[in-house]
């Protein structure tokens, strides 16, 4: 067999994965590489173990820190859950490659975390081939796992069946972070419409909000990211569907809707008038953040309002009198509020049949994850040890000032906690910055107006194979339109190109799956 490339967004990687899955299907490997794996016993039933011996479980997951965490949290976790745990941490930057190799050798461990939603997309064929345990029928046997949000679980199903547990993430946390001190000085209220948002950007550019007598400010600081930058959030406020939408009973991609065109015109006008950074399509997130925290831009729009905490910290180093606030309730031209939603998960964990030999072993492993969703265990894994890594203030967790200690001992485990505070009962974060408190309130409010992606749990072979490549055609065309390099007719020609390159087939496949 030829050497395989790591899982990635690339077309070649998807093809490689298909070959690998075929090669390793039906393997008999234990999926473990250390003494933490082993027979968990065949006499388990449901979430309650019939013997007192610790369940031996091996877990593989991406590591988002420079060093593997110490055993401080693991040792406490084993005591609370009556387990013997082996954690296989691999750097997040190369995690997909490791995942790919484990497929080829049939050595995935009993609990295999993915990296993100994109990796899950690449796993769907392997799941459909029966290489992972279906867990949906067992969740009702576990009091805590059964609390997981149905709307998020639905987004992870494959052909209507559930195979994974999820790490929760707010469904709709996007919005505006803006200079409240500038707005107050210019007597500008938080924008209630897209027109008022435009007017705020104009005023922050033209009315000398920093009071230095120079023409050196701009309205919006944006970056080269149409999804988690400003574009998609503003697009939802115009009423654009979330990735795909239904028109005349048929699913179509968002860029085939007039509201998408309206959004492009909005950004084109912002850029033409100098109300945003001119080179935003070539601006990294770091540079966009620096533009905002240097005090030269007044509006930052993106996929995470909680970023206000970090932005505020960095901004006041340069402008000590600055005040930030968050906002998200912007009405579309039809008078309604729309907020695009993500699928509700940051990562997923799967249970390979090559490592989990039977139903009894699966139930023991699910029993461990059920215990993970108790407040005591969830707090340990997410926040650490009370009094060492955090303290409780007003019923919320306040992280220790020793951030290096927390990073070294807790972060690796924090990134594996199943569910979210609503379902696992862990402490919410203590926020003392008024703007952050407001942001958290808005995140909950956003869900009331959330717009789902109707294709989240649907299948399209073309999308899995060529989706990223095809999307780049639309991304490039969107930037060209905003920069004035093509007009609407030119944009529609790019859509036709997208259709011929596989887009039309993608539409047919998603609609066929939608009608099942």
Q: Gist?
A:
Helix content is 42%, strand content 13%. The protein has 516 residues and is of the alpha/beta class.
Architecture blueprint of SSEs:
Elements: H1 11-24, E1 55-63, H2 72-81, E2 83-91, H3 95-105, E3 111-113, H4 117-128, H5 150-155, E4 165-168, E5 175-179, H6 180-185, H7 194-206, E6 218-220, H8 230-237, E7 244-247, E8 250-253, H9 258-272, H10 285-293, E9 297-302, H11 308-318, E10 324-327, E11 339-340, E12 345-350, H12 359-372, H13 375-383, E13 390-393, E14 396-399, H14 403-409, H15 411-414, H16 421-424, H17 434-446, E15 450-451, H18 461-482, H19 488-514
Parallel strand pairs: 1-2, 1-3, 6-9, 11-15
Antiparallel strand pairs: 3-12, 4-12, 5-9, 5-10, 7-8, 13-14
Helix pairs in contact: 1-3, 1-4, 2-13, 18-19
| Low-pLDDT runs | 1-49
**Cα gyration radius (Å):** 24 Å
Structural class: alpha/beta
Instruction: Provide the residue-averaged pLDDT.
Output: 90
N-to-C CA distance: 37 Å
Tally of DSSP helical segments = 19
The general outline is: globular
- How many β-strand runs? 15
InterPro entries: Bact_solute-bd_prot1, SBP
Protein name: Extracellular solute-binding protein
Keywords: Cell membrane, Lipoprotein, Membrane, Palmitate, Signal
Signal peptide: 1-23
